[in-house]
Write a structure and sequence with these properties.
It contains five helices and six strands. By secondary structure, the chain is an alpha+beta fold.
């Protein structure tokens, strides 16, 4: 307003995302995506969906930071270190959503929030449904061994059963 003499009709954003850097070259008018009525919840939802589609990397980065405190670069480094496969079953993700292959899930400790590794959807659900309880998972292995009529693949008596 001071430079141009008029109130901007669009939201002002900062090119370097630093709101204390108010140099003219750092300011940008954020016109957003046209054609959405952001005055209604339906319009905001439609705008958000369109924005996510137009900015998939920014959306993924925002989600990773909000949910797990990691950047897209950190996720990508983990993905590369694991050769793009699940840390448990060592297979690539097979689950799809809306016809697209899902990304590996970020596994984290629900008590501490510490990020562990990347898992396929099936292995992530396995751990989650067992409430991260080692005793349940060890009991499940024993059950499978018992009904397969074979000796345990791992000497489970040596595995510490308490969490």
């Amino acid at each position: 307003m001071i430079v141009k003499g008029v109130v901007p009709e669009f939201k002002i954003s900062f090119r370097d995302e630093n709101s204390s850097n108010c140099r003219w070259a750092n300011l940008a008018m954020n016109r957003g995506i046209k054609g959405y009525d952001t005055g209604t919840s339906e319009g905001r939802a439609a705008y958000g969906k369109a924005w996510r589609k137009a900015n998939p990397d920014k959306a993924k980065e925002r989600d990773l930071l909000k949910d797990f405190g990691i950047t897209l670069a950190e996720y990508s480094a983990k993905h590369l270190a694991q050769n793009g496969v699940c840390a448990i079953c060592t297979k690539p993700e097979t689950e799809t959503r809306n016809g697209k292959l899902r990304a590996l899930a970020v596994d984290h400790d629900h008590t501490t929030g510490e990020v562990r590794d990347l898992l396929c959807t099936a292995c992530n659900k396995l751990i989650g449904l067992a409430n991260e309880d080692r005793g349940i998972l060890i009991a499940a292995v024993r059950y499978l061994d018992k009904h397969a009529g074979r000796k345990p693949a791992v000497a489970l008596s040596t595995v510490k059963e308490s969490a």
